[in-house]
Amino acid sequence: MAIQIAVIGAGVMGADHARIIAEDVPGASLALVCDASPERAKAVADAYGGAETSTDPFAVITRDDIDAVIVASPDETHAPLCLAAIEASKPVLCEKPLSQSSQQCLDVIEAEVASGRQWVQVGFMRRYDPSYAAMKATLDSGELGQPLMMHNFHRNVESPGPCFTGAMAITNSAPHEFDAARFVLEADYAAITAFQPARPGDLVAPVFMVLETVTGQIVNVEINNNAAYGYDVRGELVGEKGSVSLSGPIHARTNLALKASEDYARDWRPRFAEAYRLQNKAFVHFARTGEFPAISANAWDGYCATAVAEAGVTALKSGGRTVISLADKPALYARQET
Amino acid sequence: MAIQIAVIGAGVMGADHARIIAEDVPGASLALVCDASPERAKAVADAYGGAETSTDPFAVITRDDIDAVIVASPDETHAPLCLAAIEASKPVLCEKPLSQSSQQCLDVIEAEVASGRQWVQVGFMRRYDPSYAAMKATLDSGELGQPLMMHNFHRNVESPGPCFTGAMAITNSAPHEFDAARFVLEADYAAITAFQPARPGDLVAPVFMVLETVTGQIVNVEINNNAAYGYDVRGELVGEKGSVSLSGPIHARTNLALKASEDYARDWRPRFAEAYRLQNKAFVHFARTGEFPAISANAWDGYCATAVAEAGVTALKSGGRTVISLADKPALYARQET
Amino acid sequence: MAIQIAVIGAGVMGADHARIIAEDVPGASLALVCDASPERAKAVADAYGGAETSTDPFAVITRDDIDAVIVASPDETHAPLCLAAIEASKPVLCEKPLSQSSQQCLDVIEAEVASGRQWVQVGFMRRYDPSYAAMKATLDSGELGQPLMMHNFHRNVESPGPCFTGAMAITNSAPHEFDAARFVLEADYAAITAFQPARPGDLVAPVFMVLETVTGQIVNVEINNNAAYGYDVRGELVGEKGSVSLSGPIHARTNLALKASEDYARDWRPRFAEAYRLQNKAFVHFARTGEFPAISANAWDGYCATAVAEAGVTALKSGGRTVISLADKPALYARQET
Amino acid sequence: MAIQIAVIGAGVMGADHARIIAEDVPGASLALVCDASPERAKAVADAYGGAETSTDPFAVITRDDIDAVIVASPDETHAPLCLAAIEASKPVLCEKPLSQSSQQCLDVIEAEVASGRQWVQVGFMRRYDPSYAAMKATLDSGELGQPLMMHNFHRNVESPGPCFTGAMAITNSAPHEFDAARFVLEADYAAITAFQPARPGDLVAPVFMVLETVTGQIVNVEINNNAAYGYDVRGELVGEKGSVSLSGPIHARTNLALKASEDYARDWRPRFAEAYRLQNKAFVHFARTGEFPAISANAWDGYCATAVAEAGVTALKSGGRTVISLADKPALYARQET
Fold it and tell me: Which subunits have 3 or more CB–CB pairs within 8 Å of chain A?
């Protein structure tokens, strides 16, 4: 019997999750789309097979005919909805961030620990991206020796709105980078320093961060929300003997007008389409079996990314190196050695 | 209700189809795996959810609880099984070639025409590959002007067996190229010339073919079944104003030991994983709705590829230019203008 | 004492040779620039240090104060000027082709043989290009096993003039390809077949040729004089175990407006700048020492390229395979085994 | 009359300069090779035409028959030899660094200012590299908008010796990066912060620096002297509207053994061969005309790079942000606006 899934939030991300569940993942049904705007909910529901709609996410979560939920509503709703899902014993795939407040993340963790098992999968989908997987496989093969540095670059065409700030770049965009590097290196962060160039005009300047891990690696992260030229995520892992770089999907190379060129997409969907598909497939498996997916981000991972972001904001404001200290990790989140 | 699918043939291709249906395409169930070897059928069925098994494909096709079939058994069985599927009014996704005999292809076409509708989707999955799609989209955008030439290269690590010949390269491997170029150019072939270099040792030499389309394009095809270095499919379309080349999936670039390198796969599965997934998704939609997928290869396309291959074998033997003449195209296969 | 060099012909190629001699090659002086147009000769002479000028190339060749000549005048003057240089015992670097007539090439060869030594270096500069050198080094290393095929693509932005024909593509542009592949493979050609797509409008369509070497390799050549998008020369050598492709100089990669791009030049000069410099350096060494450069094209190589082009024109006209037969190679042109 | 050049220092760099002067730059003669080891001097002199040799660089500089000198001896001799060249009114091309002491650089500047003209060209040859030139041209075209960041990566196969330290990485290798970014951005540095990962074993860990320019750009520099995999210099300039990356010379791409690969060189010579040739050509022009080359690094540029390196060493030791303050720039070094 197919897992009945409710998608909460019918914006760009929610619509994409609805599409993936309806069209690209077997074993699940898009049962319901929930949004504060009934029209928006209906538009998405109708586009992908005519699911039910609702404007009350808390009511949705407790419905008996909903087996699992995907949370893609505004950031400030993530933690409350995850708490409701834990309360209702419903597996939840929560878009990042788990919360922009590390304390709220700890509240979710506390609830999950109290429940005795994991319910929350956090949408750090890059863990499923074939390029990060190839990077990690190369590192794990031993060919590179010990990892020394990881260089990360995140570029959007334009920031979500005119009031976007450097601090928001750190809290909204950088968590993907913090989590991806932490996932590849399997190491937590000890400190963060942040820099920001001057930028003429109204657009927010990029933020350039240098993180130090507890095991001594240097991880630098550029967050460039107004990079203008395209959606571009790059990364290079440097080890003792060599390095490995991410390659995003390129389907064609065109020769025209004195240029050989390859296209960038305008946003993340083409770049990470396979990552989202595999992540959501893993979530459906999780919802069916109760076995938390080995590589998915859990609530603890969500907390770590947020705690680093908070330190990053402090570092940006202070102009200095900021030490990162984390809460104690509950035993629930211990991973099996692989 | 999910479409109940039987996969006939449990070799490499059949196993891959079983996996895709079971794990990557919603709306379908892997109901049955059929193979001359009951052990092989069971191994595949068990690997993907425990479907039923059988050794009698014709009996499978007529079962009421089977809605559609995927034929991945040896080449010589393709046409008879397609005829049985047409007879049983079951949609069938038939691995290429439809038949190695163009006359047998015409028999299938005759049966399909007599039945009044299409049942047969031929597994020229490259039509669904994102790189061919990008090439075709670039051509259709008009940026390149009129197409003039298409250069195609098909390389395998090694040929299927020690008795592989140049003629087999043309009948077994080249049809993918013939169909892909015909699909991109939307033009049939008028003539073919074939060349073959000398090769020391026992391995079959590559075959290099030059085709002329009825609309005047030149299409060249290298089939190199013992290319040794990797599975590599390349193509470039050259128009009046520019050109566009296929890019296969590359996930990482590694720096080690005085080399920057990217990996080749050993076979076609990683290169065309997305193409197979999308093709099979389209087949499930076809099986559910009866609407033949707009871009899929049909029986007529299967016939054309085989007729060209037959002419190619003649050309290789004769050393000269061989004219290609096709049967009249039944109205059933007229495509809507797009 | 610097070698005193006269450059005959002050067009694009002659001006480039004058610049290289004046500015980039030690041990030589640009002593004289000769052109039918005295203004053109003076413009080039003045641009590169104020050499003398002349309008009479035959008088120039016999001057005692001229040690060596570079011939970059119109094609039909090449052979007569080479004969004059041989007569005057002056080393000559002759732009390709040695002549568009293979019989005239043989006349030059006869004169050279009669003189008892080599005087003529033919400007197939690709032999000095680092990318062809890398290709040949890879082949010679044995890594690829025996060579089986070579794919060659030659594209110009636009043909020299509106009356350019497919036959001229073969006689004017293709000789570079014929010589480069022959140089890499160290094999002569046995036969040639030519194809030409239809092209709407007035511009000459590309020519696509397939050559067979006497040692059994297949060499295909696209000559696309109106490729529009840029000057682009590509080549791939395919051996039993792998392949190697040329990479031209790329200095930067730019991200702008949803594209990552690399620039093409409008003509051959940036692509082959290093090849011309090294070729001309070798010529100065030849002029000084009398030792013919090991890898340069000699008169015999010039003859071979022209003979193949003549067969190519026949093949294009006839639409069939044309056998290539060469004169007997004089002992003067035997190369040392390396 | 050719410029008579003495090369001081017959190590790897000196031998390369001798070769370039003797074989690749017109208008100059390799007149003398000087080294503390007479054998080493003679070996280089004999390899490139049989120049004179000496073991006394100060005597060489004052010889009437020496027009100009190239200093490629150990770092600590650079400033004294430059002072001697200024004293003797001889143009000097001094390998970087001008001195490892910024105070000594200022001594050279003081002498040069006192002499009334420039004599010292510092060997930051990357200013002549076609890839940096393309980057700068792209920036200057305005396409990228204002520059915001520059990412720089410098990797060697292995550090010069077992006692190499992070501080030496900053003083010996990083000056090339400091100068190149300063040259591209046309901006001085205001501050530097340095990081260093942990590295197991005896090899020095990479150094990762973040510099802030006086005009607000962020410039980060990785110096990785034991990168193992190859000599690799990369850079990306990020502007408001796009970015541009350096591409080093690649001559071939090889397919073998499940990999497509491109070669790295073991050291800088192939990567920057053209830069050295063009730099030395500019030096010969300078020696002949007295006009200091527009884009070459002068003594002031040499001082700036050393002053930044000193601050970098302080930053590495302190673990904090170090402000960079420069001396006042003498009017002698004012550049013409372009």
Answer: B, C, D
Rg (CA), chain C: 20
A74: cis peptide before it, omega within 30°? no
User: What is the pLDDT averaged over residues C314-328?
Assistant: 97
Alpha-carbon gap, residue A166 to D218, rounded angstroms:
15
β-sheet bridge partners, residue B53: B33
State the ipTM, two decimals.
0.96
A285-326 pLDDT, tens per residue? 999 999 999 999 999 999 999 999 999 999 999 999 999 999
The whole-number pLDDT of residue B160 equals: 84
A83-120 confidence digits (pLDDT tens): 999 999 999 999 999 999 999 999 999 999 999 999 99
Homologous superfamily of A127-270+307-323: Dihydrodipicolinate Reductase; domain 2 (3.30.360.10)
| d(CA B247, nearest CA chain D) in Å | 13
Q: Do C203 and B240 touch (CB under 8 A)?
A: yes
Calculate how close chain B gets to C177, using CA atoms only, in Å.
Answer: 18
Residue type, D202: D
Instruction: Tell me the pLDDT tens digit for each residue of D269-311.
Output: 999 999 999 999 999 999 999 999 999 999 999 999 999 999 9
Q: Looking at the domain C3-124+274-297, which fold is it?
A: Rossmann fold (3.40.50)
Q: Which residues contact A54 (CB under 8 A, 6 or more apart)?
A: A6, A32, A33, A34, A41, A60
Q: Give the chains touching B; criterion: ≥3 Cβ pairs < 8 Å.
A: A, C, D
- The two beta strands, C259-263 and A259-263, are antiparallel
Domain with CATH 3.40.50.720 in chain A: 3-124+274-297
**A264, closest residue in chain C (CA to CA):** C258
* Residue B125: pLDDT over 70: yes
Smallest Cβ distance to C256: which of D27, D242, D249? D242
Inter-chain CB proximity B260 and D264 less than 8 Å: yes
Contact B200 C224 (CB under 8 A): no
Q: How close D198 comes to chain A (CA, Å)?
A: 5
Contact assignment for C240 to B151 by CB distance below 8 Å? no
CB contact under 8 A, C261 and A257: no
Please tell me the distance from the alpha carbon of residue C3 to that of residue A219, in angstroms, as a whole number. 58
Q: How far is CA B71 from CA B57, B111, D227, in A?
A: 9, 17, 52
Q: Is the pTM of this model over 0.80?
A: yes
DSSP strand pairing (C252-256 vs C242-246) = unpaired
